[in-house]
TrEMBL record:
Annotated source species: Acipenser oxyrinchus oxyrinchus
Primary location class: membrane
ATP-binding listed as a keyword: no
Keyword GTP-binding listed: yes
Protein name: Dynamin N-terminal domain-containing protein
Organism taxonomic ancestry: Eukaryota, Metazoa, Chordata, Craniata, Vertebrata
Pfam families (alphabetical): Dynamin_N
InterPro entries with a match to the protein in the record: Dynamin_N (IPR045063), Mitofusin_fam (IPR027094), P-loop_NTPase (IPR027417)
Length: 189
């Protein structure tokens, strides 16, 4: 889907190009969704890239919602609707029952690497079995995968590298968004 400049008098979602795809206003930063099994290194990667300890890490399932990690002029944390207000192009997430309560944003002043050009979206660690999420995690991941510029998929080669839930979502995402996906075997701790 191409991103094109829309006319000022048009509102987001009202216009479309000849292919029927909606025209989106250009964004200043690329968006990268990090997904994968729990404890596969998603949050650790963000902390390393940013050069700060922003996201909690550990063996337990630390990330239970979606955390947008971006750069800004001052350190700040936002939750729920404030996140959707900041990222209006992700507003349709609130249509997924329960997900709004599990949205947050961490704004960092870091100038490491090219952090000023990227927004990371840290996602819940995926597991098989009886784990119940407070929202439809698969639907949310699939929708976000359609919206973001890149999808980084992390696998823990020492743990549940072949979690069925992760593999099912990856397979479905790759059908429409294969060119966006990058795969990483990672384990540093």
């Amino acid at each position: 889907m191409s991103r094109a400049v829309r006319r000022p008098q048009e509102r987001a979602g009202e216009s479309s190009c000849s292919s029927g795809a909606p025209l989106l206003a250009p964004r200043k930063k690329i968006s990268v969704m990090l997904m994968g099994n729990h404890s596969a290194g998603k949050s650790s990667f963000i902390n390393w890239y940013v050069g700060e300890h922003i996201q909690r890490t550990g063996v337990a399932i630390e990330t239970q919602g979606f955390t947008f990690v971006t750069s800004g002029r001052r350190r700040e944390s936002l939750t729920g609707n404030a996140t959707l207000h900041l990222y209006q192009h992700f507003q349709k997430l609130e249509e997924i029952t329960g997900v709004s309560d599990y949205l947050s944003t961490e704004i960092s002043t870091s100038r490491e690497r090219s952090f000023g050009l990227v927004t990371f979206i840290d996602t819940p660690g995926l597991v098989d079995g009886d784990m119940k999420y407070e929202f439809d995690v698969e639907r949310a991941l699939l929708w976000l995968g359609d919206q973001v510029d890149l999808v980084f998929v992390f696998f823990d080669p020492m743990g549940q590298a072949l979690c069925k839930r992760t593999l099912n979502i990856v397979e479905r995402l790759s059908e429409e968004n294969g060119e966006k996906m990058r795969f990483y075997l990672s384990k540093a701790d």
